[in-house]
Amino acid sequence: MCAKKSADPVIDEIRTLRAQLEQANYRYYVEDAPSIPDVDYDHLLRRLQALEAEHPEQVTPDSPTQRVGAPPADGFPEVQHAVAMLSLDNAFDEQEVRAFARRVAERLETDEQTIRFCCEPKLDGLAVSLVYENGLLVQGATRGDGRTGEGITANLRTLRSIPLRLLGDDLPALLEVRGEVYMSHSGFKKLNDDARAKDSKVFANPRNAAAGSLRQLDPGIAAARPLEFCAYQVARIDEAWLKPSHSALMQQLREFGFRASPEINVVTGADGLIDFCEGMGKRREQLDYDIDGAVLKVDDLRAQRELGFVSRAPRWAMAFKFPAQEQTTVIRDVTFQVGRTGRLTPVARLEPVQVAGVTVSNATLHNMDEIERLDARINDTVIIRRAGDVIPQIVSVVLEARPENTQAIEMPEQCPVCDSKVERLGDEVDARCSGGLFCPAQRKEALKHFASRRALDIDGLGTKLIDALVEHEWVTTPADLFRLEAVKLAELPRMAQKSADNLVASLERSRHTTLARFIYALGITEVGEATANALVLHFGELQRIMDASREALEAVADIGPIVAGHIHNFFAEAHNRETIEDLMRVGIDWEEVEVGEREQPLVGQTWVLTGTLETLTRDEAKARLVALGAKVSGSVSKKTHAVVAGEAAGSKLEKARQLGVEVMSEQALLALLNQLESAPSSENAS
């Protein structure tokens, strides 16, 4: 689209910016093929906002800056629809679809197999009407009762998938477009994730979220929600712009700047309708938005007029409805599943019910905070939702149906799998089993962590091999790894004798480690490498760490009450102590750690390593920095103390220079480390 030239360069730039932004919106929302990065779009929009602020007389209603330009309303005005927004008759099976095609053929007095139907998915959102005069959006309204809706123009103007001005120069004087406002699955998830982070209300499903967003009196709220619009019908248009078919009109809407469903297809006869409905049903779960069926329309507009209407529905269209994805049922009990990381998840045991064609008897309750938010109890009637292959979830409780015999849902004090203590500290959302090394539910994950490179570094012990060892019941605790024999290992599928010998040799090497690596390998919740090093430097001996009180643990640098609670609970669990003793019996050892009064001179400093180091490995450099009290981060910020740049350092080095962060060579780092490691306790780093 080209902007017209004028004598004023400011007006030219404003027009050019608007044209660029409109084109970017069209490519992103209609063609699903972004033409510029988001950062460039934001730059263009900010420039246009600045120019319009300097020249307010140039602001027009269709400017991209005016999508949120209205103050909050006191209420929504009534809007009388010039053409009623009628509902559709429904079909629920193949026989009803074939009956629809047969009725159409009989009324048109033609062969059923020659009739062309335009088919598209039935979006599960909120139907709205948009009216354009001379290409400008002048009114937006909800469906309401079909005759009268609510005027929500200001809210609809905030949706970037709705053009404020139609694309093109030759435009109809009048156009009314019908369509659906909805929220994608990804947008809905982000909306609820953000709400949970702010301890705000979360929405039950995307449709409720979309409807609730459009009925906000403040357009700014609607603008902040991930709402989208998809056109499905032309209700009114100048006679000169009429096309012979519905599908041709939908193509015209795309050219005007609207999004129409990419799934639209023109088929012939009842067989074509059945094939489309079955195909949409199969693709339903792969879509990033909810659909509850398919809309089937006679494509020929002249035939539509001849068929006319009956009661409140057109004879030329029908909605094929998929099985409902939401149903009501009753919570009969709640059990707790233990995940591979020890997290306990409450699962509602339900009165079996058919949802989306599947019998559902279980639904996730996520965590105790979600149970509290829902106010869910045993024996409550609840609405459950199943979308995709994921476990169904409880959307809401039907409080009006709450019986007198409900029971509160309580987190167990002991793990239902291994009987270890269940911990939930501070404001943490999740409750966890504290028997990490012992708990069968966590076995595979605990072993993978124990053998990882930064823990015991057992070369050759990968995920698939751990899975096989656990499934053969050859390994139940980490200590069992060191009892494996090469002859027995060679019996495993795809395990040659040489590989078995190499693994046993690797296990032998890993018996000799450091105390910090061993602490990290135990997999204590929230105890990473830095915390493990801090514990070792503070206490010096494993037994002292195991016997430390919460207060003593909190005295360690950078360990707060939550982490101290995790550590204390882990070592207080008898199962974990037994596993550690077993590891000592199979020969795990380390050199004694000297604990003195020497200060850690790099406490409070954050360092970043980038590029390839020649003398040290990244792990060695990190370990020595951490031992001196530093934190080693993977990203550069204004709080970074220094960046060590090796060969082929990339974006982190560039960002350090931009932020003015000190950049140090590997040689300079080595010199500093040697100096600090040999310095007396009173010496500090600059």
From TrEMBL:
EC number(s) from the headed UniProt entry: 6.5.1.2
Under catalytic activity, the entry for this protein gives:
NAD(+) + (deoxyribonucleotide)n-3'-hydroxyl + 5'-phospho-(deoxyribonucleotide)m = (deoxyribonucleotide)n+m + AMP + beta-nicotinamide D-nucleotide
Q: What class of enzyme is it?
A: ligase
Keywords of the record, alphabetical order, are: DNA damage, DNA repair, DNA replication, Ligase, Magnesium, Manganese, Metal-binding, NAD, Zinc
Residues given in the record as NAD(+) binding sites: D38, V39, D40, Y41, D42, S87, L88, E120, R143, E180, K297, K321
Q: What is any one GO biological process for this UniProt entry?
A: DNA replication
Report if keyword Zinc is assigned. Answer: yes
Annotated Pfam families: BRCT, DNA_ligase_aden, DNA_ligase_ZBD, HHH_2, HHH_5, OB_DNA_ligase
Gene Ontology CC: cytosol
Outline the extent of the BRCT domain.
Answer: 597-675
Superkingdom, natural source: Bacteria
Q: Which cofactor does it need?
A: Mg(2+); Mn(2+)
Residue positions of the active site? K122
Q: Which residues bind Zn(2+)?
A: C415, C418, C439
The family database entries (InterPro entries) matched by this protein are listed as: BRCT_dom, BRCT_dom_sf, DisA/LigA_HHH, DNA_ligase, DNA_ligase_CS, DNAligase_adenylation, DNAligase_N, Hlx-hairpin-Hlx_DNA-bd_motif
Q: What's one GO MF term for it?
A: DNA binding
Family statement drawn from the similarity comment of this UniProt entry: Belongs to the NAD-dependent DNA ligase family. LigA subfamily.
This molecule's function is given as: DNA ligase that catalyzes the formation of phosphodiester linkages between 5'-phosphoryl and 3'-hydroxyl groups in double-stranded DNA using NAD as a coenzyme and as the energy source for the reaction. It is essential for DNA replication and repair of damaged DNA.
Task: Write down what this protein is called.
Answer: DNA ligase
Q: Which organism is it from?
A: Kushneria phyllosphaerae
